Amino acid sequence: MIDLKTISTKEMFASIYCLEFKGEFQVSSGDLCYLSIFELSEKIKSREISPLEVIESHLAQIERLNPKLNAFITVCHEEAREAARQAEKEISDSKYRGPLHGIPFGAKDIIDSKGVLTTHGSSFFPENVPGEDAECIRRLKEAGAILIGKCNTHEFAAGSTTKNPHYGACRNPWDPSRVPAGSSGGSGSAVAAFMCPGTLGTDTGGSVRGPAAVCGIVGLKPTYGRISLRGVFPNSTSLDHVGPLAHSARDCALLLQGMAGYDPMDPASADLPVPDFSAEIEEGLEGLCLALCPDLVQVEIDAPIMRAFDDAVEIFRDLGAQIESVSCPFAEELNSQRSPIADAELLSVHRENFEKYPERFGNDLRERLENARKTTLDMYIRACQQRRTLRRMAETIFRPYDGVLLPGYPCVAAPVESTMATVNGKEVPFMGLARNLTGPHNFTGFPSVSVPTGFSPISELPMAMQIVGLPGTEARILRVAYAYDQSTPEIRNRRPVII
After folding, report:
1. pTM recorded for the entire structure
2. 43 given a catalytic annotation
3. Which of 153, 225, 316, 350 could pair covalently with 121 via S-S, beta carbons 3.0-4.6 A apart?
């Protein structure tokens, strides 16, 4: 028996609406927001819980925490509720669409969403409401997923702090005085704070993996072209990737499953076979061979992060993986040739507005665009030509391995006010600090997943590693990530202080 005097109108509505769906009169639990996509999916499929209960739980968490974290620019309150009601009806009518049916997700605010404000984190699009969804969102909706809101982003996705000059700084749930990295900082913060179980970000030089790393969650940058870029505001088109952020490798696999596939209307789309990304996820590491490649670590790594990485390597050995070291003599070229492409393509997107309205850009983006003018056409063409050769060379070197293990980020999250990181006792700018660590895999287009490795003993903030694979091997690197995740429950089960 429920006490009608102690429940809110919202809870009353949810309970009554779920009567037919569940066959009983029960108030939805606020704890639903702490379940993974996989767990929610199993309970929705069995009709133990309803999509509307799930949405209400996450909306309540957003209402409680978003004012402190600023992870969402726009929240789709009524749109999400209406979609949840529709999902309930479909499931009740035995029209279950699969594991994403009724699951809420957030999307970075450079990804078009039909009928929902999409600002691109800029001063140029304060009232932009797209007429159709980006292809990645369309596919998730087709799979039954429900858009719950648009996540804060660094201005035009062109920086690594998500200290947005137009919509306010996004903050890290582990310490709201710290940044969530970027540019998909809102996507990382929203998942880490359990405001939604999964989000979409974009990654041009580390912008999915960075927020995942410093927010203590999992973030996947898939193979280049695996997920359509149609309807996503460009940063550097030949380096841009859409990718999922979630609490586990399995959840990332489920989101990837909903988005992956060739899009003939996207010139960057890759016509790759789409496997079941979850099929081998529980098969463990026996028989797999993983590589260490110090040549790819071209930035100083804070000592606690390096110690946690070394500990993770030992866990992989204990789980049955063979660990080998491999050299990549051209590693520096992966970064030196990536920069001209990133700068030239970014400037090409913004050149007209930058020349007419430079004052409408934030200081860091304005400085970056000014610097990009130094990139010549010859530099850009040479870099594009070199990329083909370097990618083939990288494929040859790493072909014997099931994944390459690397530190995930050089440092923990920096303070919002100063945006100065601390690496081995030295203060260094957080902006762009990880690009030489994460960016090479945008240049090659290889998939890479960021996985939490624990918490700094100095700051108690999250640390991470990367697992990189060859093109098309997302299922394999997610299997590696999942094995580690399952072996470290003390990391997986820890919640941010703000919770």
Report:
1. 0.94
2. no
3. 153
